Amino acid sequence: MARLTPDNVARAQEIIGRYPRPRSALIPLLHLAQEQDGWVSPEAMGHIGELLGLTAAEVLGTCSFYEMFKREPVGRYVVNVCTSISCHLLGGDELLHHVEERLGVRSGGTTPDGRFTVNHVECIAACTEAPCLQVNYRYFHKVTPDAVDALLDDLAAGRRDDEVPPHGTLTRVRQQVPAGRWAGRGAEGLPPDRTSLGGDG
Amino acid sequence: MTDTTRTEPEAVPVTINGTAIEAKPGELLIDAAERHGVYIPRFCYHPRMRPVGMCRMCLVEVDTGRGPALQPSCMIPVAPGMTVDTESEATRKAQDGVLEFLLLNHPLDCPVCDKGGECPLQDQTLAFGPGESRMVEQKRHFEKPIPISDLVYLDRERCILCDRCTRFADEVAGDPLITFVDRGDHTQVNTFPDQPFASYFSGNTVQLCPVGALTAVPYRFRARPWDLEQVESTCTFCSVGCRIAVQSSTNRLVRHLGVDVDPVNWGWLCDKGRFGFEGVNSDDRLGRPLVRAGDTLAEATWAEALEAAAGAIRAGLDAGGPGAVAVLGGARLTNEDAYAWAKLAKSVVGTDNVDAQIGDGLPAEVVLGLPRATIDEVCAARTVVLLGPDLKEELPVLYLRLRDAAVEKGVRIVEVSPHDTGLTEVATVALRHRPGEAAAAVRAALDGAGDDPRVARAAELLAEGDVAVVLGRPSLAEAPDAVVAAASLLAARLPGVRFLPVLRRANVHGALDLGLAPGVLPGRVDLDAGRPWFEARWGAVPASRGLDATGILTAAAEGAIETLVLLGADPLRDFPDARLAQGALERVPRIVAVDCFLTESSRRAHVVLPAAAFGERSGTTTNIEGRVSVLNQKVTPPGTARADWMIAVELAHRLGADLGLDSLDGIWAEIESVAPAHAGLARARLLAADGLDGVVVPLSDHHEAGADRRPLAQTEAPEVTAADTHMGPESVATTLPGGETVPSVPRSPSGASGATMPEQIAEAAAAGDAAREAEAPEEAAALEAAAQQAAVEAATEDAGEGDVSAPVEHGPDRPPLLAFEPVEAGPAPPVDAYSLRLVSGRKLYDQGTLVQHAPSLAGLAPGAHLRVNPYDLDRLGLHTGDGATLRSARGSVVVEVEADPGVARGSALLPFNQPGVSAAALIDATARVTEVRLETRAGGGGA
Predict the structure, then answer these.
(1) C-alpha dist (Å) from residue A104 to A100, A134, B3
(2) Cα–Cα distances in Å, from B639 out to B198, B299, B601, B850?
(3) Which SS3 state, helix, strand or coil, does residue B254 take?
(4) What's the Cα-to-Cα distance from A106 to each of A72, A103, A113, rounded to whole Å?
(5) Do A193 and B430 touch (CB under 8 A)?
(6) Alpha carbon of B921: minimum distance to chain A alpha carbons (Å)
(7) pLDDT at B688
């Protein structure tokens, strides 16, 4: 896992260009890295730092503040099962156990094939539809054990790709801002002015 | 207090605990309260950094008309009519609560914590805390101390997340390599994995830390605060002149802490200054004199060694006259030492072949003659021109001050340099030029010539006026003439411009001031102009101007020097041109070395006299601004090593002369009366409350009031008060009552008493008023002198045409101070299209003697890569990481190349004195520039 691909570097430049100051693009670039690899690798953090003129430590500081940026590899599908009060009353814990048994990993773990990561989460604000869960932050409401079996089968077989993209992809509509409307100068804005006098030889 | 002397818009009336006070507009409540004697507890707040309101410890009840409410006093500026209660029940309850919170996860491992005994968390818990905790749950646990750099350990369990270290790293040092990681109750301070907190300033975070979370490797478990003795002194590991607390335990130096002084270091230190004391403690220190017996140096008594040294000087004089004796070095010396050695060399021996710089600085006349700016003046200028070395590497705390000026105060920096430096990223304009072409670059910037927008911008900035110049030697691989010509241009074209000379070595500025340079006499006086005055006082003065370091070594290599005295100089390692130094030391028949260590050079000496080092002797030192401040002895020197001035006196005695110097007080009194630049600066002034920050000489130029302050009152460790009255057992010897030893010389009546300096400091602390009264006549004398000078200046105004650099007469007999004589820029050296020009500067950590003898620092020398502009590298078909042979007319070295767009085209940057690669093997000290060719190691194409 690694640094941003050339395509993503080009995307990063475009994103950086939108802002008056490069470091404002930090969170969008973390999303970009997570979209690329499914998680934010140390190499990616270092690369983002280079693009923004920040130290890797500064990137890590921001990245680690947000739970949704994963700093360890996760499965292609991250299954978050809610166990807060409404879901708990309507079988959320049983649902979690079912998912754990079905996938053979405990909450927080990832299946050996790298396909699924299971988490129990606090309230995800869908109490009227309890018990509920998310797969890559896409909601599934009033989930029964049978429904979850079907869902996991579908995901494993790739039948839900339209609905549930791989982990890290938040949207499939990418905003484009033409360079003429940028507020900054992209990564070009980074190094300070310097010039060589008579040093062309 | 100083605040009443300033003109202020208006005072803000505030009531604190029922007492009406007047605060300054915009002042933070916590500061206003402290200035009026009300201490509000705090952890995160630090007056030198932006407030963040992290720790909530400074909550107090504030009423601005809408009823009292708890507010963090470090975050709210004072407002008219504000009523504050720092002792109310609500405040007390809040403090209780905050401390209970801060202690939730604190391990309370005080018995094994370095901070125990001087810990703000301990102290404030005792003063303001609840005394017990309701927390019964498991505390959070982390791996106990983890190294976050080679010098600093982090214990995250102790951390209270106050944001001081991380703010310092980001705001002050500009090295944001530590940060808060994770959040909520998992928040911790940490580095990025495998990227250590490798900052030159990392030690400051240890001093800033209000708990024991950050500890310094060299100090861990070495001492307890209540066992420490301390004196206030001035750091001499470079020439910035940071004030420090020197702390010792069982007669060994164990710690340096920065003291917060406004004009210089603001409490900061670099890691070299903070941890360099390890070199003083080294077991390799010389403690006995050595005299050569055949191939070996054997221990001898002082009498034997001094006789041998005096014999060597006599033999040199007999063989070739005064001109055959040369003295090299002297930056290590105190002002008093330097004066004694100058007097010995120039009046007793009669040689002017004396140079405290070792071919790595600027001509003494330039340094002494240019109109001088203080650090504060530079940082308050509209535009600062950087014309010198990389300050982050050479004078780190000056770098911090300039960085602050640029980032926080909007000072515009115009950097003229052959390569990127630490300040490039905050510079408004960075102009790159090849070595030898500094004058051309400055001329272009002044004219705005050409169509380069950056040159035009520089011209704009310079045209707006109020410019200060930081002037030093940009590279050891080029002669200083280019940068001197550039300075001449700036002086001629920018009226009122002032210069801050940045020679690097410890007290090199004091040494030059006091005559340890060819062609100058003590007090910034030209040899010829000062001859009558000094002949009347010294008896004899050299007949003609002598040689500088390069001249001395060249003459030595040609056999014209019979006896060479090395005053702490190690030319074999330090002189830019290794072959010249080698040739010189091989040829000279007699070498006398006065040194703290056996260095490569002193190993070749015939007599080695052991000298006292930093912390082992008292005296004064002079920084880049010309600021004279007091050095205090803390520990005894090893063996029988002694202060350099004593060695000078003894040698003079054996040469049949009496220097008339028998104590530090006596020497200072003579300096004050003899040296024009130091006239009116009595030693008592330096010891008084307003002289602790140092006093800039000459007094007429920069007569600043100085901040009244108690010694060490503003250190970050006010709890460390153990023994500031301590006096080293040997200090008696160095502070013999000196008063009236110099006849026929007018001196101010009060003088310094025979008391030791630490005692005087203690007195000043104990009875500030009494001390100030005692010092009053001194001040009156100084004022009188200043008034006299003003009158003389007015009288000689015609001659000087109001030019700030005009010579200033100091009394009827005194010779004038040196004035800068502009140097015309010669034609730039011709460009050889097949060569690159070598640029070589120093890194903070190198193979210097003290660094190498400080175990914590010795391994930090980064080694040397050759940095070349990618344009040139492409031309040569080389890539980053390739090995190549770098060849000059002097020699060749094997290097690894690295592409660096920050290096001017046509140049090659190789750091000096790094392990593995010797830049000195390439440099020709007699040439204007050093041309080098880069060859692939296969022997292929050249360039």
Answers:
(1) 6, 19, 72
(2) 36, 12, 22, 18
(3) strand
(4) 16, 9, 15
(5) yes
(6) 25
(7) 86
Does A199 reach chain B within 8 Å, measured CB to CB?
Answer: yes
| 8 Å CB contact between B651 and B313 | yes
Q: Of B191, B440, B831, which has the smallest distance from its Cβ to A197's Cβ?
A: B440
Angle between helices B481-493 and B438-447 (to 10 degrees): 20
Q: What is the DSSP letter of B346?
A: I
**DSSP states of A156-168 as a string?**
HHTTTTTTSPPTT
pLDDT tens digits along B818-828: 999 888 888 88
Helix then strand then coil, in percent of chain B rounded to 5, is 35, 20, 50
Residues B631 and B619: their CA atoms lie apart, in Å, by 5
Encode pLDDT of B84-101 as tens digits.
Answer: 999 999 999 999 999 999
ipTM over 0.85: yes
Neighbour-count burial of B400, counting CB atoms closer than 10 A to its CB (0-12 exposed, 13-18 middle, 19+ buried): buried
A201: which chain B residues are within 8 Å (Cβ-Cβ)? 831, 833, 905-906
Which residues of chain B are within 8 Å of residue A64 when distances are taken between CB atoms? 181-183
Domains belonging to chain B, first-starting first, are: 2-102 (3.10.20.740), 290-361+509-794 (3.40.50.740), 364-502 (3.40.228.10), 836-936 (2.40.40.20)
All structural domains of chain A? 6-71+171-189 (1.10.10.1590), 77-157 (3.40.30.10)
pLDDT in tens, A153-190: 999 999 998 889 999 988 777 888 888 888 877 766 66
Residues B395-413: pLDDT tens digits?
999 999 999 999 999 999 9
Average pLDDT over residues A70-86: 95
Strands A116-121, A77-82: pairing is parallel
Mean pLDDT of B359-386: 95
Q: Are the beta carbons of A199 and B193 separated by less than 8 Å? A: no
Q: Identify the three-state secondary structure at position B553.
A: helix
Tokens of B228: 């420490």
Contact B379, B262 (CB under 8 A): no
Confidence category of residue A44, pLDDT binned at 50, 70, 90: very high
Which segments of B300-365 are extended strands (E)?
A: 325-329, 354-355
pTM of the shown model? 0.88
SS3 call for B20: strand
- DSSP-assigned states of every residue in chain A: --SPPHHHHHHHHHHHHTSSSGGGGHHHHHHHHHHHHSS--HHHHHHHHHHHT--HHHHHHHHHH-TTS-SS---SEEEEEE-SHHHHHTTHHHHHHHHHHHHT--TT-B-TTS-EEEEEES--S-GGG-S-EEETTEEE-S--HHHHHHHHHHHHHTTTTTTSPPTT---SS-----GGG-SS-GGGGSSPPEEEES---
Q: Which residues of A touch B179 (CB under 8 A)?
A: 57-58, 60-61
And the tokens for B39? 């201490």
Specify whether the CB–CB gap between B116 and B212 falls below 8 A.
yes
Residue with the bigger pLDDT between B742 and B226: it is B226
Average pLDDT, chain A: 89
Cβ–Cβ of A198/B437 closer than 8 Å? Answer: yes
User: Could you tell me where the beta strands, DSSP code E, fall in B330-487?
Assistant: 354-355, 383-387, 412-417, 429-433, 467-471
CB contact under 8 A, A42 and B193: yes
Interface check A60 vs B, CB under 8 A: yes
Residue A57 sits at the chain B interface (C-beta within 8 Å)? yes
| Token representation of residue B564 | 């060479």
The closest of B785, B401, B342, B417 to B625, measured between CA atoms, is B401
Q: Which of B181, B432, B907 sits opposite A194 (nearest CB)?
A: B432
When computed from its CA atoms, the radius of gyration of chain B, rounded to whole angstroms, is: 28
